[in-house]
Design goal:
Order of helices and strands: EHHEHEHEEHEHEHEEH
Number of strands: 9
Radius of gyration: 16 Å
CATH architecture: Alpha-Beta Barrel
Number of domains: 1
CATH class: Alpha Beta
Length: about 210
């Protein structure tokens, strides 16, 4: 079954509000037909520029409520304390963003825990010396990204990876329709969401209904 990872963001998107977190899940569940495996991913960090950290108690609520609805819940981590916190939960994988200065965190994850790492292209893929529990998503770290930015390299990567796995920051479903990736990651928001992760590259429940 194809996997769809939905990035619910940090404290920005959910406003660090449990009621808003519940709405994010409830509106997703209303359009989710079960055709694909949907995995919910948050972002955990202590500091990240203008981003607002997700409070630990709100992640705990998000994990508990999402799990109750039948979703696997995990997070991207940006520091060791956030990783240690995440590893307290039963998670499907740890996510490492497309920032090579964070790759040292891979060595801090137990080998029994899967890791998904976003990488920016062919050269990074060829030079990657990661462990056997790591798999990769092709990613263009522009928000939003253009189709042409993905097309430059993604055709090459399909032949190398066997099955495309894409972190999609475009504003439409062209990559999904063209490649039918084994794994796709999209940012997720509600129609009234605000903040850095709620730009035009993020999908609303109404938009996700087109594919779910």
């Amino acid at each position: 079954m194809k996997k769809i990872i939905l990035d619910f963001g940090s404290g920005n998107t959910c406003q660090n509000d449990a009621k808003y977190i519940k709405r994010m899940y409830d509106e997703l569940k209303a359009v989710d037909t079960g055709k694909y495996e949907v995995i919910v991913k948050w972002q955990l960090f202590e500091r990240a520029g203008d981003n607002i950290p997700l409070l630990p108690e709100n992640f705990e609520y998000a994990y508990e409520y999402g799990t109750r609805l039948g979703y696997k819940v995990t997070a991207s981590v940006f520091d060791k304390n956030s990783l240690d916190f995440l590893l307290r939960f039963d998670i499907p994988f740890v996510k490492i963003a497309n920032r090579r200065e964070l790759d040292w965190l891979i060595g801090e994850v137990p080998r029994c825990v899967p890791i998904i790492v976003s990488i920016g292209g062919d050269e990074e893929y060829r030079n990657a010396k990661y462990r056997e529990n790591v798999e990769f998503l092709f990613c263009v770290s522009s928000y939003p990204a253009t189709i042409d930015q993905y097309y430059k390299i993604s055709d090459q990567l399909i032949f190398q990876w066997g099955h495309p796995k894409i972190s999609d920051h475009t504003t439409n479903y062209n990559l999904w329709q063209r490649y039918r990736p084994e794994i796709v990651e999209w940012h997720y928001k509600l129609s009234d969401s605000t903040g850095l992760d709620a730009g035009p590259f993020a999908r609303t429940p109404e938009q996700l209904a087109e594919v779910l």
